[in-house]
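pasting input
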Amino acid sequence: MTFFSDAVFAIAMTLLVIEVRVPEIHVHSDAVLGQALLDLLPKYIGFVVSFMVVGRFWVGHHAVMGLLKGLDRRLVWINLLFLMAIAFMPFPTAVFSDYNGLRVAVGFYAGWLIVLGVMNRWLIVSALGNPAMLRDDADPADVKLMRRSSLIPLIIGTLAFALGMIQPIFALAMLVVGSPIVSWLVRRDRRGASPSA
Amino acid sequence: MTFFSDAVFAIAMTLLVIEVRVPEIHVHSDAVLGQALLDLLPKYIGFVVSFMVVGRFWVGHHAVMGLLKGLDRRLVWINLLFLMAIAFMPFPTAVFSDYNGLRVAVGFYAGWLIVLGVMNRWLIVSALGNPAMLRDDADPADVKLMRRSSLIPLIIGTLAFALGMIQPIFALAMLVVGSPIVSWLVRRDRRGASPSA
Amino acid sequence: MTFFSDAVFAIAMTLLVIEVRVPEIHVHSDAVLGQALLDLLPKYIGFVVSFMVVGRFWVGHHAVMGLLKGLDRRLVWINLLFLMAIAFMPFPTAVFSDYNGLRVAVGFYAGWLIVLGVMNRWLIVSALGNPAMLRDDADPADVKLMRRSSLIPLIIGTLAFALGMIQPIFALAMLVVGSPIVSWLVRRDRRGASPSA
Amino acid sequence: MTFFSDAVFAIAMTLLVIEVRVPEIHVHSDAVLGQALLDLLPKYIGFVVSFMVVGRFWVGHHAVMGLLKGLDRRLVWINLLFLMAIAFMPFPTAVFSDYNGLRVAVGFYAGWLIVLGVMNRWLIVSALGNPAMLRDDADPADVKLMRRSSLIPLIIGTLAFALGMIQPIFALAMLVVGSPIVSWLVRRDRRGASPSA
């Protein structure tokens, strides 16, 4: 299961680059190509932000799986739903990159982050809430911190959505600078631990 | 072999998103983009249904592989044929999404599910029918249930095909609500077991 | 290394489906869509033949890796060259599917199979010819058979190329029916063994 | 982590072929198709060079991971940044293939190799500089050589960039012939060892 999940994460993250397409230029000059490459800035930002967002979910997923003995039938299906939401990410990313000035595009993207956050939390709470699934050597403090940390992406997604409705660019700012701040707030009573690595 | 199979499943499932393409809109307004995103509904449905269908086959495949010591030459080739049918899924999914009102599209999609069902059953019956391949600790009740369960996708595919010929939308309804019902009917004499997890 | 190689094989095989694109039809009728799906026959054939060709190389690769303790620096690079040739397969397959009536297309495809055959043989002969790399429990008869079997794809590729120059369709016939015949000829003095599974 | 990283490398390398597209020819003749396939030479070169460049980074990454017990939180994130740069490679490769006569395209490609080289070195120096992460049986001579070798891609990328600014084709020459020369210079005091295999 871990192997299969890792492959879905890796593919979804690598496929994000497909949306960054080579610009067609009609005059073959350095100036024109240079400008065309600069104009793709929203595509680069979409790639980087989504790669990091999915990467962050992967780090959390990997850490949770490391605390479990296995997955029962129910967890397998919750995991598949979560992976489906991950596999879908290239689409909201492309919408966001292409129409980043429109509230609908930003809302669609941030809305999908909320969906991911909900499924991530559902998976983590279901997995860690079942003592029969936990490894015997799982540290209760790690388990508690991981459950609490699963709120982070949900909070960030919701804030990005709300801010994006006020002004699209605020959503992006939230995603870039909000993550470390919210993480710090949620984790501040257990500094120094590295539960997700 | 398990690793290779898992990778093919993961890639085929993640590639399904490639068919969901960003709409081109000619007026940059929230209303137009919102409508364009809504118009992609058949694409979303195709993605979700196919992801879950392939995911279900993966769950079964994973469970069967867990009961085997290894694969002999013949099983390796049957497995490759099955994986080929899985790898092909993005194409019938795209045909189904693009032309969901046409019987030929629905029949093509449901027909491919029948092909998958046949190959899945062929693989499972061949693998579990060979005592030399079974792990010594494989529970005979699990083996029996798994052989029987391998009929489920075949039944669902056939019903979806037949219903789709009457009315295309019925095929979709069958795929969404039929799976739990048929699963329940086939498994009802062994509730509580979780053989595929 | 095995894991990485398996992933490259799995991705190259699954990407073959990307070349099979949904037909655009201008009249939405079952007859028109049905005809359009039939017209894609060369695409389906290209997908199936290439999937099986690459699958066959994978089976052999997997078997060889199972006889080795590890790969030294030189083998790592030969393996990377072989994987590069495998990763390139979607391109000759697409050329072959699109222009199957032209000798250049058939020659390009069959020529690439010869390249694959040469690299495959190079890898196998290098790997199995180095006693320091062989596992201690590797059966010398298996090793000998595997070295000899590595000629099969080379022979088939060369025959397909030669026949394709006479008449394009002959190349396809060779690939479909030639493989079992040549395999039988090469292996006939060791029936019943299953070295590649 | 190794598994996930390997998958990202494998996918990024295999996706490079997507940029090599079947030429559309308007006269179906062997001569026209032959010429069209020859005209794709820059695409083939881009595929081969990038496959080998990424393959080389993979070989190094694989070797470094083999010396570590695990990755702490900080290394996980440096690794993710490195993998992001790897996953992005299909884009600079496509720009380079399409506009190989323009300094901006060559500079963009070689510039990205410098980015990869910097991240690769950052990851290797961070990982090997932390004694708590090193495996107990890691040979100090291997560690030292690996740290030093991590300068190679950085040097090659910088030389390719500089030469490409003088004349675009020089960058390519550097990438093809420079790698073995620079490798030899950096390693010459430890011939015969095979630290990256």
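fyi Confidence is low (pLDDT under 50) at residues 191-197 of chain D.
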